[in-house]
Specification:
The structure holds 2 protein chains of 2 kinds. Chain A is of the alpha/beta class. Chain A has helices at 36-52, 66-76, 92-106, 126-134, 187-193, 203-206, 236-249; strands at 2-6, 9-11, 17-18, 25-26, 32-34, 55-61, 80-84, 111-115, 138-148, 151-157, 161-168, 171-175, 198-201, 215-222, 230-232. Chain A has a 9-stranded mixed sheet, sandwiched between helices. Chain A is globular, with a radius of gyration of 22 Å. Chain B folds into 2 domains: 2-168, HUPs (Rossmann fold, 3-Layer(aba) Sandwich); 191-315, TPP-binding domain (Rossmann fold, 3-Layer(aba) Sandwich), CATH 3.40.50. In chain B, the strands form 3 sheets. Chain B has a 7-stranded parallel sheet, with helices on both faces. In chain B, strands 13-12-14-15-16 form a 5-stranded parallel sheet. Classes of the chains: A alpha/beta, B alpha/beta.
Chain lengths: 254, 316
């Protein structure tokens, strides 16, 4: 089976600090990583490959330094990588056209796997957009995936219900964080991965049309959080009494 | 036209409010789309729709490929420039696929939607709740999804002037199919509508101890227990309808009590709009205290029983 995994390099949101004065996030100098759920997607791909054989190609649209992070994916078990550096001001329209273009250029694919969303922007647009551009079925928010020759069955987790779907190849799935625990590559695997190729393709290599953004980010604002921050930490009984009094005074106990 | 669609009635009613306002400003009609049963058509007219299109379909259950094709068909006939879709998981995969098919822009989970002249601007929370991105659409059509509770439904209008139109649309058939649908284990909790929520997190050592939270919730007459991601998603001590956070439910009760929750930004994103926030945590450095009005630093196994009995005395 030929499997393609779309992976994104993101800022590690857990490391983001907020500027005390402007309340804006400080993004400069924040460590970069592969988005968590994209690793879940790769883990699913590896499990399918272990059972049915095949080839896993990871496609990333991102900055040139994403190559460093992609090496980790090759160490986990992907066979090859493709990196496309997007133009400035790339929105989902542009990014997904580049991804879909790269997938078409790869040519032969049975299953495409993406994370349910990326941890930085959490839109969940990329997967279904790529499926739409390739005009293939999509199964989003997949919790369990079973691949068989020619078809895949997956359970979508919708919170209040789960929907089991089946699709012939080619199909695109997006996977949730709970679907699996991505493996940590062994030292041997890390060493062996250095011989695996990461191809540099340009935007022009994968898309004939001139892509212009449909949505532009005008500003990234801070979020004001005005809280009283009254913290009791002395005697426990006294703390409880004070808290109950305060809650009574502000009227939330009625 | 401004088009509104969701497979959840509650979301349609909320979105119609915004659609009506945009429609007024742009002098465009508001079109609500129902795929399947016309049960709620009249109600949509009473809450702001000028036209309700009821699409007859051999696919009554939501399916992204077919429903994308249906909306595309409607947009072709009616020339919709703004499409508002309810932001649940189905709505999001629909909006994104539709945007790809129409080669247009799409913004998910908009918490603010407004016009600047003729330009449509939207805001959404990014970086795990650390910031708000202001996005501008540069072309039409403009597709956006809006989560529950961002807008309130308009008051019911007694004699709406709008019309209900039935339509047959031949949707493109996808080779995928739905094998079965199963209700997930749920305790029937509705955290999104709760006025008082007591939530638990990783500070609890075992499942049985969550009783301490329910007892406090009962005394507060909130009776609603929430939790952070690990409790619902990883440990599965509570069903996912209790889960509060960026990928769980977003809540705004008048009182939110976070017990043994560290305050990861993903959790804060789900409860930051609460009226009064109380945190109980044994770690004085816990992030949750930064987002709290009141906090007690202490072992929740000691604090909760004392707090519950003190409140019982006060409230009776």
């Amino acid at each position: 089976m030929n499997i393609i995994v779309c992976a994104k390099q993101v800022v590690d949101v857990a490391e983001i600090k907020v500027d005390a004065a402007t309340k804006k996030p400080i993004l400069v100098g924040v460590p970069q990583k592969i988005s968590d759920m994209d690793k879940n997607a790769l883990e699913e791909a590896i499990k399918i490959k272990e059972k049915h054989g095949g080839k896993i190609t990871v496609v990333t649209v991102g900055a040139p330094d994403a190559k460093e992070r992609m090496k980790e994916l090759l160490a986990m078990g992907a066979d090859e990588g493709v990196l496309i550096v997007p133009p400035d001001q790339a929105d989902y329209h542009i990014i997904t056209h580049l991804l879909a273009g790269a997938i078409k250029k790869i040519g032969s694919y049975d299953i495409i796997l993406c994370g349910e969303a990326s941890i930085d922007l959490f839109s969940g647009q990329t997967g279904p957009r790529v499926a739409g551009l390739l005009d293939i079925p999509q199964i989003t928010y997949a919790q369990t995936i079973t691949a068989e020759p020619g078809k895949v069955t997956a359970e979508r987790n919708l919170g209040d219900k789960s929907v089991t779907m089946e699709s012939p190849f080619p199909v695109l799935l997006t996977v949730t964080k709970e679907s699996n625990q991505p493996r940590l590559p062994s030292l041997m695997a890390i060493l062996a991965s250095s011989s695996k190729p990461i191809h540099d393709w340009s935007a022009a290599d994968v898309s004939q049309e001139t892509l212009t953004p449909k949505v532009k980010t005008k500003d990234v604002k801070g979020i004001p959080m005005q809280r009283k921050n009254i913290i009791y930490q002395d005697d426990l009984d006294a703390s409880v009494t004070k808290l109950v009094d305060e809650l009574g005074k502000v009227g939330v106990l009625r | 036209m401004v088009l509104v669609y969701s497979d959840e009635k509650k979301l349609v009613l909320e979105l119609l409010n915004k659609a009506e306002q945009l429609g007024k400003e742009l002098q465009k009609k508001v079109l609500a789309v129902i795929i399947g049963s016309d049960e709620y058509a009249k109600e949509y007219l009473e809450h702001g729709a000028d036209v309700v299109i009821v699409v007859e379909t051999p696919q009554p259950q939501f399916k992204a490929e077919e429903y994308t094709s249906i909306l595309q068909g409607i947009m072709k006939d009616h020339g919709n420039d703004i499409v508002l879709i309810g932001s649940n998981k189905n709505g999001k995969e629909l909006a994104a696929r539709l945007a790809a098919k129409l080669n247009t822009g799409c913004v998910m989970d908009c918490t603010n939607v407004y016009l600047q002249g003729k330009t449509l601007l939207v805001e959404r929370i990014v970086y795990s709740g650390n910031a708000i991105a202001v996005e501008e659409f540069t072309t039409a059509p403009q597709i956006l999804t809006i989560p529950a509770k961002v807008f309130d439904p308009l008051p019911k209008q007694a004699n709406p002037h709008g019309e209900i139109v039935k339509k047959k649309i031949t949707a493109e058939q996808s080779p995928s199919k739905i094998l079965k649908t199963q209700e997930m284990k749920s305790e029937g909790v509705n955290v999104e509508d709760a006025a008082i929520i007591v939530s638990c997190g990783r500070g609890f050592k075992k499942k049985e101890d969550i009783r301490l939270v329910s007892e406090l919730a009962d005394v507060l007459k909130g009776r609603t227990v929430g939790c952070s991601r690990p409790i619902a998603a990883d440990l599965k001590w509570l069903s996912e309808d209790h889960w509060i956070g960026l990928s769980g439910h977003k809540v705004k009760p008048k009182l939110y009590v976070a017990c043994g929750i560290s305050g990861q930004i993903q959790h804060i994103a789900g409860m930051r709009d609460s009226g009064v926030i109380v945190a109980i945590n044994k770690d004085p450095e816990a992030l949750i205290f930064k987002s709290a009005d009141y906090g007690i630093v202490g072992d929740l196994y000691e604090v909760l029983p004392k707090l519950t009995s003190a409140l019982k005395e006060k409230i009776g």
